[in-house]
Amino acid sequence: MAGGAPIGNVSTSAIPTGRKAFIPLVLVTILFFLWGFAYGLLDVLNKHFQTVLGLSKLKSTGLQVAYFGAYIVFPPIGTRIVQRFGYKVSILVGLILYIIGAVLFWPCAQFETFGGFVAATFVIACGLSNLEVAANTYVTVLGSPKTASFRLNFSQSFNGLGSFAGPLIASKYFFSSGNSGNLTSVKYIYLGIACGVFLVAIGFFFAKLPEITDEMMAEDSNLPTKPLLKQKHFIGGVLAQWLYVASQVTVATFFINLANEDGIHTDSKASQLLSYSLILFTVGRFFSTFLMRFFQARYILGVYAIVCTILCALSVGLHGLSGIICIMVLFFFESCMYPTIFTLALQDLGGNSKRGGGFVVMGVGGGAIFPPIEGAIADKTSTRIGQIVPTVGYAYLIIYAFFLAKAPIPSTDDLESK
């Protein structure tokens, strides 16, 4: 089977490829690390705030609602920005919002206001969502369409590295004996994040990024640009992204709680296990990137979705270490899902690639839906029972991968109309 997932039959006469695309891809890949780091910290903050601020599991998911709710609200704005001003300006806007949100964590920690943390998290997520609208689409269209899934999976692998670094740092500083009962470490970590992102923003300000317009995509494509609502692989992909992110976020959000129920009684140890799980996630993404040189992306997605569905279902019934191991292994198999769904959904969109990318990024908003549902179930029964919720999301991905993800073959009339 051929590898990759082409986004369209593009001649690439105007779109940079090869060496011309290398430096821009390296710069944009840095962004994937940044929001992986932000997301990795989020899941640990959830449990830290439960302890320090005395929050219930359900109320603590306000962070997830704010973070992923921003992906529902801001991507339409981000799509307009990238369409009107281009990728570079869009990336700079996202980085500036990221910096503002990170700086706001200082007064929130000083006054221990959870509402303030929710608002600051929303600002950070608006910036991250804008970066995703620009960066995911940019990596997808920058280069040969035949290797779109390969490129995006490789770049997103650094997202996994950032996600791993977040909980590892948190396990040392948030839950250490001196900081386990206060928010002092939160102030300094997010101030450091703001400084780091500021340096990245300076780099992008002076960098030269080749611009790729909708007109270039439409002109270089051998296919006509069809309405988005008439393309089932796109519609199914948006739903797949909603349900995947909802499931992934729910599993990660309640990992520490689940580990506590299954015999890991210290938050520091559970946070370390989450960090190890994210190592598996990162390794899995590099491994799936390798597989995409030989197998079609949608088949890899389908097989991984089957495994994730089984592992998540097993975690409902299994107790102790076996249940924890199921979820840790699940991280490995869910690793390729976000970038693979993204590129599958954007196949053959041509001049609608930026607009379509905005809708797929909105799918990240699914992370605001499932965690409160599992939180309510966990408060009344147990976190293990709540694992039924993400199991449903993984199951849909099986249907999408095998039955909806393949873009329709263009007819002779389509090619003639082009």
UniProtKB/TrEMBL annotation:
Keyword Transmembrane carried by entry: yes
Signal peptide (residue range): none
Subcellular location: Cell inner membrane
Membrane topology annotation: Multi-pass membrane protein
UniProt entry keywords in alphabetical sequence: Cell membrane, Membrane, Transmembrane, Transmembrane helix
Classification via Pfam families: MFS_1 (PF07690)
GO CC term, one of those recorded: plasma membrane
GO molecular function, one term: transmembrane transporter activity
Annotated transmembrane regions: 21-42, 62-82, 89-107, 113-138, 188-207, 234-258, 270-287, 299-316, 322-344, 356-373, 385-405
Name this protein carries in UniProt: Uncharacterized protein
Species whose genome carries this gene: Ceratodon purpureus
